[in-house]
Request: fold
Amino acid sequence: RLTTVQSGKIKDFLTNNIDYVNIGILISFYTGVRIGELCALKFSDISFETNTMRIDKTMQRIQNFKGDKNKTDVIISSPKSEYSIREIPVPQFIIDLIIKNDLYRRDAYLLTGEVARFIEPRTLENKFNKIASICNIENVTFHMIRHTFASDCIEAGVDAKSLSEILGHSSVNITLNRYVHSSMEVKKMNMEKLYSYTNLSPSVI
Reply:
């Protein structure tokens, strides 16, 4: 996962340089969507009345077995798992940024603002790496945003069941075992709690 300082730097950059790609990456930070889901997302998938986002498709590059074995195609399809089809709350400030910057285009892809042009996952990964480099952050991947979101939610007190449904997991165990990593700040805080508990004065005990 990204550290609090790293994610803070990237979020600040995205917020201060709003365009279609950056609003998309910002959405990932606050919803935990997978990179393929984000690339397939359209503005029509977002409800500005209920501040929710429907995830029911994903984008991926696969090998083309019909012709040249070295050729690959980008496809948009339904997620493999039924649990990946879900409604996710979208923070109000994200909605406000889209409206304020006049980004909304109903039938357009969210990352391009165009109906007929999309950005594939590999390209988005490269764009994210460039942003991280600008922020002087190295050795990160787009998928780390999803890990960071999950860990931040647990640390903020979001219950595991709700988080599991937001992430599109089939069980809470997958969420806790695979995606939740406590930050060093939280670990230090918990150790201080232990110290306070084990060093109670006789009068308190």
Notes: Strands lie at 46-47, 52-55, 58-63, 72-77, 86-89. The mean pLDDT is 89. The longest strand covers residues 58-63. The two ends are 39 Å apart (CA to CA).
